[in-house]
């Protein structure tokens, strides 16, 4: 297997690359423009085993085409994207260009060069504000109705993949709808280094280590038991394993979309309490207004990926997720 990973210098892509390098003999090429990813991550991955890295911007369609002309890829795993929700509201065209247009051209390259397998990083943001009662989990069949351009830009690619697979015999895709990804490599090799991070667990880890004076809870008046939003936090290595499962699943099965989460939700207050326990630091937390566009509860029904791919998560443990996030945060400047 020859595999192309886009966005492999970033947080999730680098964890998937790590598993491919460690656990398979697949030939790997990573492309990344290092806009939010890090060359240091690529260098660390190279200590596992050799692979090709190309500093390439997906918007350079000519370069992308040349890459496909000179390599015979069997599968593409597509992570490269812009992913800050509020930024997508202020600058939607950046999201439609980078996520939808560049993603579409990447799919065209696959069709033009007989690359048959495509694994796509989608998001729970495609569901928008799910219509559920308190204890319901979201199934893949739940209507999609993104409430921001980021979610919309990703849903477009899901639709383009579906139409393309219908029109081109042999081309198949798996779209993985990630819920809230967190944690880091258990041996401290790689983790989330994103600058100006907004993700709850990373912000809590930074506050626990004194990198921030305090942190904020965005709203405690949601219709949940403690008033704060509930999310399904999935460990980044378990998510990476879902990609390895998808690579094995795709040649013998139909295309499809799959939720990636544990099916268990934690409130913002529960996450912060866990980080306080794990770090031993009772850091300052202030309640402030709701953040725009936050649904109250997002919890995955993961029956489909468990039953059809045999995905069996190993790190379904919020304490461990907080611990590895904290250890990584301690390691980076
Ligand atoms: N982090 C999450 O919680 C989360 C949740 C759901 C979905 N996702 C999706 O997972 C994927 C990876 O997210 P991440 O958290 O690892 O983000 P990240 O920012 O760490 O990684 C994205 C990588 O893509 C690269 N990139 C961006 N635009 C590019 C372009 N035009 N050309 C080449 N490289 C480009 C960046 O430099 C970066 O290395 C994204 O598609 C994102 O939408 C992430
Ligand atoms: O400092 C903070 C950061 C976050 N939160 C709250 O914590 C919850 C989780 O927020 P994150 O920013 O960590 O994650 P989101 O749920 O907003 O979004 C993430 O998960 C989504 C799917 O569930 C999408 O995939 C999206 O791309 C990804 O960023 C939200 O209620 C948010 O309001 C705080 O209270 N304080």
TrEMBL record:
Protein name: UDP-glucose 4-epimerase
Keyword annotations: Carbohydrate metabolism, Isomerase, NAD
Pfam families according to UniProt: Epimerase
InterPro entries xrefs: Epimerase_deHydtase, NAD(P)-bd_dom_sf, UDP_G4E
Enzymatic class: isomerase
Domain NAD-dependent epimerase/dehydratase positions: 3-261
GO biological process: galactose catabolic process via UDP-galactose, Leloir pathway
Pathway the protein contributes to: Carbohydrate metabolism; galactose metabolism
PANTHER family, per the entry: UDP-ARABINOSE 4-EPIMERASE 1, UDP-GLUCOSE 4-EPIMERASE
Organism: Hippea maritima (strain ATCC 700847 / DSM 10411 / MH2)
Essential cofactor(s): NAD(+)
């Amino acid at each position: 297997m020859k595999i192309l990973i886009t966005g492999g210098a970033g947080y999730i892509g680098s964890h998937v690359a790590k598993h491919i390098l460690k656990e398979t003999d697949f030939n790997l090429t990573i492309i990344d423009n290092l806009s939010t990813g890090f060359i240091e991550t690529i260098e660390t991955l190279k200590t596992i085993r050799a692979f090709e890295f190309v500093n390439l911007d997906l918007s350079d369609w000519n370069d992308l085409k040349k890459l496909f002309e000179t390599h015979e890829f069997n599968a593409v795993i597509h992570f490269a994207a812009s992913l800050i929700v509020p930024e997508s509201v202020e600058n939607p065209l950046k999201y439609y260009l980078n996520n939808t247009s560049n993603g579409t051209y990447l799919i065209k390259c696959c069709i033009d060069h007989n690359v048959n397998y495509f694994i796509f990083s989608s998001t729970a943001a495609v569901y928008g504000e799910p219509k559920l009662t308190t204890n319901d989990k979201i199934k893949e069949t739940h209507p999609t109705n993104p409430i921001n351009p980021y979610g919309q830009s990703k849903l477009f690619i899901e639709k383009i993949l579906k139409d393309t697979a219908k029109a081109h015999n042999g081309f198949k895709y798996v779209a993985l709808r990630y819920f809230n990804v967190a944690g880091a490599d258990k041996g401290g090799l790689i983790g989330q280094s994103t600058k100006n991070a907004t993700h709850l667990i990373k912000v809590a880890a930074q506050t626990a280590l004194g990198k921030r004076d305090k942190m904020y809870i965005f709203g405690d008046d949601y219709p949940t038991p403690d008033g704060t939003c509930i999310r399904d936090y999935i460990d980044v290595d378990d998510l990476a394993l879902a990609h390895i499962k998808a690579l094995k699943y795709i040649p013998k099965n139909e295309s499809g979309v799959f939720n990636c989460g544990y099916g268990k939700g934690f409130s913002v207050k529960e996450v912060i309490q866990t980080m306080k326990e794990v770090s031993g630091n009772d850091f300052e937390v202030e309640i402030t207004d709701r953040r725009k566009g936050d649904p109250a509860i997002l919890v995955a029904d993961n029956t489909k990926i468990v039953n059809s791919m045999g995905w069996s998560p190993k790190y379904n443990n919020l304490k461990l997720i907080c611990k590895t996030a904290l250890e990584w945060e301690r390691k980076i400047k």
